[in-house]
# Entry
Amino acid sequence: MSEQFQGGLRLLSKPTKLADLAALAGVSTATVSRALSGHPSVSKATQARIQALAREHDVRPNQLARNLRLRSTGAIGLAMPLGHARTQHLTDPFFLSLLGYIADLLVDRGYDVLLSRVLPENGDWLDRLVDAGRVDGLLLVGQSDQYETIERVASRYAPLVAWGVHREGQRHLAIGSDNVAGGRLAAEHLLERGRRRLLFVGDPAPPEFADRLAGFAAAARAAGVRAEVLATAMDPDRVHAAMRTRLAVGTLPDAIFAASDVAAMSVLRAVGEAGLDVPREVAVIGYDDVTLAAHTSPPLTTIRQDLARGAALMVDRLLARVAGETAEHAVIAPELVVRAST
# Structure
């Protein structure tokens, strides 16, 4: 950073190095480096002042050199394990929404995002992700049927956070909604509407769906009602086929709780094709409150998960773990969103 003189005033040319930025800020080069990396040894006020100067003068530390010094990759892994739903894609509205929130937050924190769609063939898929040395930490969007694998790896790898359920004694850190409470909300709403022939549609094996079914069934039992279960893979076409078969035989349900909004949309399609009126003859309720839920015909009643808050909690607690700090699981209360399908 050279000095120039104009009209008796000393002007500083554009800074190009951390040392130049340090001179402008009146601190050491080491302090500038730590401030730009968000190191806790530098006060928040000093960090903000130096980061503002860096943005103003477009000064950027050499990222590779910084990563080598800090033994950091500058990247966070974002993986979606699909052990129970191998045909599911990243374009699923629920996953797409949560992935979008998470990726935006990580980029805002200065991290690159390494995205993986995992089809587990054996138990070492997670070991390979965390041991490859390509990321500073890993976020899992869902536990699928890989709960035990996640538990095993979490016992030796701390910067790992999953979206999903939390069980008593669980080792891996999880953020998610209270799925039991969500299932209970669904049943109570349908029962209040006078429905008595309740049907749950979805895959009861993955932990989140299992909890939704447990809450739904418990609320039904408390009201003296038995909840029927139509177990099916969560692929939209398979939900639709299973629902069409079920509607063709036996006593018709008067209320259907689908394990996700996407499954509920397939249910609505099958019910409509059967010539049944929603909600007069059959009420339908979903889970998630994806954007499309408000635009189905009729608009879908659902249980909302606060994905924006969930994503923020996942990122904050993962980065705390990356920094060597303690961080605990969190459970988010679900919310009933009533629309015209019930």
